[in-house]
Structures are given as C-alpha cells and as structure tokens.
Amino acid sequence: MNCFPVPNLALGTSGNSSMRLTRKLCAALVVIVPLSLLCFHIFTKPSSVVNVWNREAPKDLLDPSVFQPSEKLSHIPFKWKEDVLQLLPKNSCKCEAEATLNVPFRQELFGKPYAVEFASSIDESQLDETKKRREQEYKKYNIRYHNPTDRLIIAKANSPLQYPTQGVEVHPLKTIIIPGLSLQDFLKKVYKVTLSATMGTFNTAAEVEGVTIKGAGERRITLSSPNLDNLNRQLQFISYTNTIFNPNTADIVKFQTDEHSATFNIKIRHPRVPKLYDSGSSNSKYNISSLVTIATKTFLRYDKLQNLIDSIRKYYPTVTIIIADDSEKPQKVEGPFIEQYIMPYGKGWFAGRNLAISQVTTKYFLWVDDDFIFSPRTKIEKLVDILEKTTLDLVGGAVREITGYYTTYRQMISVFPGGKEGDCLMTRQGYHHAIEGFPNCVVTDGVVNFFLARTEKALQVGFDPRLSRIGHLEFFVDGLGILHIGSCDDVIVDHASKIHLPWSKTETDKEYAKFRYPKSSDNSQNVNHILFYFKNRFKCMTGN
Questions:
Q1: Does residue 201 have a pLDDT over 60?
Q2: Membrane topology for this entry (predicted)?
C-alpha cells in the first residue's frame, strides 16, 4: 500500500474520499507500530545484562613487592640459605638428563634418565605461528579458570577490624548474612566503617537505633555511629546479595575504617550436587558385581581377550565386562554380563578407553589390558577397600610378567614454571609416602595399566582420543591436581607371555605388532610431543 498516492483526477469525489481514508490509515499505522514495538521491547527486555567474562586477567599470585623491605627494616643485614633457595620455584626451568652413577642394572632398577624438547617435534616453518596460537589460547585459559580466591591477601598487623577469613559462601544471585563483622577501636566521637564489593550489594536485615546507614542496596555501604556497641550490633545484620551470575567464582570484599583496611572473599557457587551409586546392599561386605565394572580395549587379539574373560569368570562370575573393539573385522564376544562396543577400524587406544568407561554404570571401574590374566592374587576387594576408606580416586595394582618380575610403574609427576616458552614436565619413578592402615600401599601420581578408579573422577579427566597408538603417562598428566592416586603392590594381575618364537607368530600377531610397536619413522610419538607442547603448554620433559 502506498501511503502517499498521487491523486487521480479522473476518480472525482469518490477518489478523493478514498485517498483521505488511506492517509488516515497510514497515519494511524505510523503511531501504532512504533508504540507496539516499544511495548514489546519493554516487556521482553531482560532484567540485566552482564559480561560473562567479568573477571580480570589473573596477575602473579605472589606480588614481588612482598619481599621488598620497608624503610624501617632495609638496613638490617641477612644471609641467604642456599639449601632452602634450591627448594623454591624458579622463574624459568630447563630439562636436563641427570648424570647418574654407572652401576650394574642401573637402567633396570632406576630407569634411564632422558630429556625431551617438545618444540623439536614441530616443523620449524610452523613453530612461530604455533607459539602465537598457543599463547592466545593460554591467555583465554587463564582468564577462564582464574578464581579471585587465588589472589594473595596479606592481613595488616594490629587491625581493629574483625571479619571472616574463610568459609563465607553464597549461591548465585542469592543473599546471606555476613558473619563475624565487628570493630574493636579506640574511643572516638564517631565510629565509621565501609564495606565494598564488585559482584554484589549490601543491605541490613535489621536496623539498630543510633546507627546511620548510607548506600543500602548498593555495592558500597557505610555505617556510622557515636556508640561502638550499637555499630557492632548493626554489623551483625549486614547482608550480601550476589547480583552478577557466575556459577563458580568469588567476590573480594573490602572492609574499611578511615585508618585501616581488610579484605576477605565471599565464594559464589552452586551447591555441589552429589552423584551417588547404589551398590544394592548395606552390608559391610563388598558386593563387587554392584560396585565394579571391568573395562578393556581390544584390537585383533581375540584369543588373549578370551583368556582374560575366562580368568575373570573363575573369581568374579557376575561382574560386568565392557569391551571396546576397533578391529577391522570384529568378532562377536559372547557370554553373560559382557558388553561389546564396536568402533571404527583402528580408532585407537585412548578413544577405546573413553568409549568403554562412558558405558560404566557402577561406582568404580577396573581397567585391564586384554592380555592380562586374573589369578588368586587379583583381589579386587582390596582395591575397593582402599577407595572406600580413603580420599583416593584411583589405585593401581601390580602387573606380573611370565619371568616373575612385576611392576607397579609408580611415577611422581612435577611441573615447574618456565615462562613464555612453556613449563617443564618432570617424571621420576617412586612415590610420595606410605598410606596409614594399608601397609602395601603408597601415594603417587601415576600407576601401571591395571587400576581401579572412581568412575566420575576418571570421566572428569578423560582420555585424549588423539592418542591412538601410544599413550599412558598423558592421562595422569591431564589428571594432575584432579586425581588423588595410590598404588598397592599386593594386588597382582598376570601378564600373558610376550615371548614369541619367530615361526610361531600368526598373521594376527604380526598385524597387531605393526600397530602396537610403530617404527621409528611413524609419527605416533610425535603426536604425543606436540600435544604436550600445545595442549599442556610444556616446553620439555625430563625423567627416568
């Protein structure tokens, strides 16, 4: 419809009337449409708009100025203690293979020292661009995972301010009373305190006579009174309301007088929702079938897999066994309490682990290789007992070879700061300390490929599916700081013999060996190093 038509003189009076009607209708639309849009905007507008990146870029947790002496102390001499300085973190790390004594069986007993520079695994023409991308991702990572509670706060000496140092928590967009606020000051005409925050507002749940309040309902509130007791009574009713939604962060609150200042944090987070597993019995004796699922990944070796299943059934006839299978021509594995999941051909080692564990519905899963064999010493109950009675998330056993030698592959893993070039990863054979009440068990950071784990915690870490051919340490590196790990050498599983005479190898054995033991020209190890370099931001690794 044309709201401003050109008059048609041939229409006469009727045409003029029609034109006037059209103009009135258009005028009405000009008024009604904007009003309608305005009403729609008002009634559908969200209550508030916030920046979900509402976090400052993290700064160094330890401010160098902390070590700067005040003028009062600068003249006092001191002497550094080298033995303690050696224990402190350095600004930049480097990886060097440690020199060792040349003693018999040194490598067999303690491993061979090594050092790897991960940047050498990246094409030199792409290294600068890769570094740039890694640094961009690292900055985003720091902002995303930085928490205000990581910030260093030093309480000044002899402050008259009383406040909570920890334990104050509020649910997102909810309100709490801040406990423990008080002022213990000298005699004054007027006592005044101020509270300020960045992610919430303050108010008073009750009003006390003789106290003046300014800024109620705002991010900064000031309370003053000529009577100290009245002021302290009012401080008992100070409320805090979180106004910026974030499911897991903290607000830094400043509590001040004219002469003194204190800082404390209020954690902002949802309540932790439990994920509980029903074992089906409240008896003290463990029902292994209800508590544990056995998980494995197989590729081609159906004869060894069947030997594993047969050995499990001797001791645990009703425990569920989950099999992830990426063979080219998968064979159906039948039997009670067996679940077989077929994957694309050659999908890989860690992808198979992810698939198998994703199907576990029990509290724990026991990871085994498909060429293990259970024996009377493979007591799952012992591993369950330690996870049930400790804070450990994962506990490894021992793997016995046909020669009688067995390994726990206990690894201590450390990360040292290395500046812009990346951090340094260090692994050492060994453990941190023994576990009280479990004489054969220790705390460590990495274990052998035979372990019992809490399903939820292992899923939280996951297995990087890009590690298709070679991978073990990578899972424990990703779990560093997440998984609390133990190792017990009195729970033992046997390893099928790896000794094969050349003429006894089948075509399946040869095909499997090509995947399991790649040639030096294969880039599988290169993939691991590139992931360490970019994903974990390591520049190098050293170990034994």
A1: yes
A2: Single-pass type II membrane protein
298 and 242 inside one domain: no
Q: What is the pLDDT of residues 308-349, one digit of tens each?
A: 999 999 999 999 999 999 999 999 999 999 999 999 998 988
Examine the domain organization and report whether 447 and 340 are in the same domain. Answer: yes
- Return contacts of 174-179, CB within 8 angstroms, 24+ apart: 174/241, 174/242, 175/239, 175/240, 175/241, 175/242, 176/239, 176/240, 176/266, 177/205, 177/236, 177/237, 177/238, 177/239, 177/240, 178/238, 178/239, 178/240, 178/253, 178/266
Domain boundary among 269, 303, 335: 269
Q: What is the DSSP string of 420-471?
A: GG-EEEEEEES-SEEETTEEEEEEESB--S-EEEEHHHHHHH---TT--SS-
| Tokens coding 96 | 């060097």
- What is the CATH classification number for the domain harbouring 507? 3.90.550.10
- Give the Cα-Cα-Cα angle 511, 108, 370 (nearest 5 degrees): 35
pLDDT digits (tens, 9 = 90+) for 227-283: 999 999 999 999 999 999 999 999 999 999 999 999 999 999 999 888 888 887 766
For range 193-214, the mean pLDDT: 96
Single-letter residue type at 130: T
User: What is the amino acid identity at position 280?
Assistant: G
Same domain for 462 and 532 = yes
Q: What is the pLDDT of residue 54?
A: 46
Residue 172 belongs to a domain: yes
Residue 438 has pLDDT above 80, yes or no: yes
| Domain count along the chain | 2
Q: Does 350 share its domain with 428?
A: yes
pLDDT in tens, 38-58: 555 545 444 556 555 545 555
Q: Is residue 364 part of a domain?
A: yes
Positive or negative CA dihedral for 216, 219, 225, 230?
Answer: positive
pLDDT at 357: 97
Interior CA angle at 281 toward 279 and 284, to 5°? 105
Angle between helices 124-145 and 524-534 (to 10 degrees): 50
Q: Is 290 exposed, middle or buried (0-12, 13-18, 19+ CB in 10 A)?
A: middle
Task: Tell me what pLDDT residue 5 has.
Answer: 44
Please indicate, yes or no, whether residues 344 and 434 belong to a single structural domain of this protein: yes
Whether 92 is in a domain gets the answer no
**Structural domain span for residue 484:** 294-543
CA distance 37 to 43: 10
Q: Are residues 475 and 428 in the same domain?
A: yes
CATH number for the domain spanning 184: value is 2.60.40
**Distance from C-alpha of 221 to C-alpha of 238, rounded to nearest angstrom:** 10
Residues 235 and 300 placed together within one structural domain of the fold? no
| Percent of the chain predicted with pLDDT > 70 | 79
Contact yes or no for 279/236 (Cβ under 8 A): no
Residue-wise pLDDT tens digits, 511-536:
666 666 666 666 667 889 999 999 99
Q: Residues 432, 525: one domain?
A: yes
Q: Is residue 66 part of a domain?
A: no
Distance CA 313, CA 307 (A): 10
Which of 204, 235, 269 lies at the terminal end of a domain, its last residue? 269
